[in-house]
Design a protein that fits this description.
The complex is a heterodimer of chains A (288) and B (463). In chain A, the strands form two sheets. In chain A, strands 2, 3, 4, 5, 6, 7, 9, 10, 11, 12, 13 and 14 form a twelve-stranded antiparallel sheet that branches. In chain A, strands 1-8 form a two-stranded antiparallel sheet. Chain A is mainly β. Chain A is built from one helix and 14 strands. Chain B has 463 residues and is of the alpha/beta class. The chains are: A mainly beta (288), B alpha/beta (463). At the A-B interface, β2, β3, β11, β12 and β13 of A face loops of B.
Chain lengths: 288, 463
């Protein structure tokens, strides 16, 4: 049978699957589901340690953040893609470094500002549009803590996931910012390792391991900058297949990158970043 | 820069100021260091075939590595720190002469708020450069650096990101560096997991050693028997010469004239917009405020002193080069002073003194130099500026910082950043000349008082 028929067969099996039936094939086709009006409230706690070397001196900083984000579904469009609004309801970022300590609490330029995102049912981001202008100010330099939305809808493999088997996925993402574009390419491996009840939801426990590369450029204050880097990550996803949503996720990412500046001055800044984050679904209100 | 330097020297001469050491110019070299062709790291265990490591993935030279090779036995020396103030010395009980030394980055008990190494803040021993100097002082032939795994997850050998090893980093992103002396250099590279696994079996074994050191603050240095390291790092240096402009107004008191007050301003800016060059548009960074304003102030103050009765102490006027590249000119001056730093009693710096509203100026360094600040506050009664004390975050951002590093009392005069900062729009028609005149007058009066006393001014060190 051709691959797509296998996938369709798998989906059919999955849809008929009773979660506790002990079905012999124990394989799953994962996809996100959100009816129009559904709301999801997530918390995201993150810690990022960053070490930069600037002009011969190493500067270490730690950023700790706690955020509450609300996702409101606008339903499915004609292409079968899901559209939702993402809003920060609260945010606390604490930055500790040898140069200064700062705290940002519920910054005005971020809280309540809406971003509309469109994703495919397996998490590929199609579009992201700021409906309200987000002004980060000094937060842009805080490092860590800010979410893109992909944390709540990480890529899911196209194919079926069978218990214990690995599925490889490549994801390319680009971000237009600071007058340029940064492209990240992640090569990851999904492994379905078990089932677990998490916060009252029957979840599949999925381990994801992978590597990521970054390349980008931009312009800031008349200076051109270039980014290149790579890193590793490990995640554990708790996905509720019946509800079609991510209930919790733990993430660990280590990246080595270089930011090079040319123009008024020339600098090459090596940066090491290690991030740990935990994401939890606090509340799910399904639209009737 | 040469035209500007000649102009400044001519003005100093016209005022009757004298050159120091026979010239108005203090020249120095700035370098661009690029990675050379031949770089390798090989590890051989007695009786076994040697193992080679790949550059970038498995080892990476640092920017200050030597252009040389080294072969030697391997010694582990903890964090590579000698800190007698904490009764801690990783080099005690080992002889690293002509050996290749392996050390951790960072410092013991880095995440411990009660650590004698400044708690969770980084002490001076944290910096890699001090470890390199320490290794050289102990006779090491080469230095291998590894990330300390207890506190840092990533074991990738970061080293210096040489543009030639990257696809997306342009070749001209190599920064200018200062060449202060022909001090000895040795090959210095960072190594990663593969190297550690060869020596210690696993990163966890290395972590256990680190844990022992951190928990007891007792050093655990030892020879790693049966291993020989053979490494080479190659660099190519491109050199350019620039210069500070320095002039002396000798004091009148037979004894006090041997002491000097320094007044400075940098005269360099950031050149031409090569990256986003727009034909038929303004691409020149004129730097009217940053720092023609300060340089003009310097000249006006110099002329004023030349027209006034001689002060008891001498005054040295310095127009610094290379400030925008990393405070190069002032660093050169304090490392190769033309006047004894012990006999340099104060330093006043002007950097951006011609913009922003009102007759306000920020006085930076006031908590570190309370005596100078007191004089400045008193003299301001005759000038009438609004003195602000809200810009200490700029203390390390201009040339006074290098003098402060040598514990010389300093005050920095600064009217703040603005929308034209480091842009082609920093033009002279936006300058408030009256403000420059007032700030110059205040600095003149303060320096005058400082130069007419035998008081030794306090410098209070702060983080």
């Amino acid at each position: 049978m051709k691959r797509r028929y296998l996938v369709l067969f798998g989906i059919a099996v999955f849809l008929n699957l009773n979660f506790n039936s002990g079905h012999a094939s124990d394989s799953y086709k994962l996809k996100y589901k959100m009816k129009k009006g559904t709301t999801l409230n997530y918390s995201m706690d993150s810690k990022m340690e960053s070490l930069q070397e600037i002009m011969g001196s190493e500067v270490e900083s730690t950023t700790q953040s706690k955020a509450k984000i609300k996702i409101t579904s606008e339903g499915e469009n004609k292409d079968g893609n899901l559209t939702y609004l993402m809003v920060y309801e609260s945010m606390l970022i604490e930055l500790f470094s040898s140069m200064m300590d700062s705290t940002f609490k519920d910054p005005e330029g971020l809280i309540g500002k809406r971003v509309r995102k469109t994703i495919t049912p397996n998490g590929d981001q199609i579009e992201s549009v700021e409906l309200d202008s987000i002004k980060l100010g000094l937060l842009a330099h805080a490092g860590g803590g800010l979410v893109s939305g992909r944390e709540f809808f990480p890529n899911l493999p196209d194919g079926e996931l069978k218990m214990g088997e690995k599925v490889s996925v490549t994801d390319v993402d680009s971000l237009d910012t600071l007058g340029g574009t940064t492209v990240s390419k992640a090569e990851m491996e999904f492994t379905l390792t078990g089932k677990e009840t998490k916060f009252g939801y029957d979840c599949l426990k999925i381990d994801v391991k992978g590597t990521v590369t970054l390349e980008g450029d931009g312009t800031m204050q008349g200076m051109k900058f270039f980014i290149e880097g790579d890193g590793d990550f490990q995640r554990t996803l708790y996905f509720a297949p019946k509800e079609g949503l991510l209930v919790a996720a733990d993430n660990q990412t280590d990246i080595e990158m270089t930011v090079a500046v040319t123009g008024q001055m020339q600098m090459t800044i090596p940066i090491t970043q290690s991030q740990t984050s935990n994401m939890t679904l606090l509340k799910w209100v399904d639209s009737k | 820069m040469n035209i500007a330097a000649d102009y400044l020297a001519a003005e100093f001469k016209r005022y009757g100021l004298q050159p120091l050491s026979g010239s108005y110019f203090q020249e120095f070299n700035v370098n661009r260091v690029r990675l050379g062709e031949e770089n390798y790291l090989k590890l051989t265990e007695t009786g076994q075939p040697g193992i080679s490591f790949r550059i970038k993935r498995e080892f990476m030279p640092y920017g200050f590595t030597a252009n040389s090779a080294a072969v030697g036995g391997l010694i582990f020396a903890g964090y590579g720190i000698t800190a007698p103030e904490f009764n801690y010395d990783d080099y005690q009980n080992i002889d690293v002469k002509d050996k290749v030394v392996l050390i951790f980055r960072h410092e013991p008990a880095e995440k411990d708020s009660t650590s004698v190494f400044d708690g969770m803040k980084s002490s001076a021993h944290f910096q890699l450069r001090s470890k390199v100097e320490n290794a050289i002082a102990h006779g090491a032939a080469a230095l291998l650096v590894v990330n300390d795994p207890l506190n840092h997850r990533s074991m990738r050998p970061r080293g210096f990101p040489w543009p030639s090893l990257y696809k997306n980093i342009p070749a001209d992103a190599v920064p200018l560096t200062l060449s202060l002396s022909e001090a000895k250099k040795i090959p210095v590279v960072q190594v990663g997991k593969k190297f550690i696994n060869q020596i210690f079996g696993s990163v966890d074994s290395l972590k256990a050693i680190q844990k022992e050191i951190d928990s007891s603050l007792e050093t655990k240095s030892f020879e790693i028997a049966n291993f020989t390291v053979n490494l080479k790092t190659s660099t190519k240096i491109e050199s350019e010469t620039t210069k500070n402009v320095v002039a002396l107004w000798e004091g009148s008191d037979p004894k006090l004239k041997n002491e000097a007050i320094v007044i400075g301003a940098h005269y360099d800016h950031v050149g031409i917009n090569k990256i986003d060059f727009k034909p038929n548009e303004d691409n020149i960074f004129n730097g009217a405020d940053d720092n023609a304003s300060g340089t003009v102030g310097l000249l006006e103050i110099a002329e004023a002193f030349s027209l006034a009765p001689r002060t008891k102490r001498s005054i040295i006027f310095i127009a610094f080069a290379g400030e925008e590249k990393g405070l190069f000119g002032s660093r050169v001056y304090v490392e190769r002073p033309l006047w004894s730093l012990t006999d340099t009693k104060a330093m006043f710096n002007m950097d951006m003194i011609g913009r922003n509203d009102g007759e306000k100026v920020s006085i930076v360094g006031y908590t570190r130099s309370p005596d100078l600040n007191e004089i400045n506050t008193r003299e301001n009664k005759f000038v009438g500026l609004t003195l602000e004390y809200n810009a200490e975050q700029f203390f390390r951002r201009s040339d006074q910082y290098n003098f402060a590093r040598k514990k010389i009392p300093v005050l920095f005069y600064h009217t703040g950043e603005h929308e034209d900062y480091h842009k082609v729009t920093d033009h002279s028609d936006k300058i408030n000349e009256g403000k420059i005149a007032m700030i110059s007058k205040l600095l003149f009066r303060t320096a005058w008082q400082a130069a007419n006393t035998n008081q030794t001014f306090k410098y209070i060190e702060q983080n």
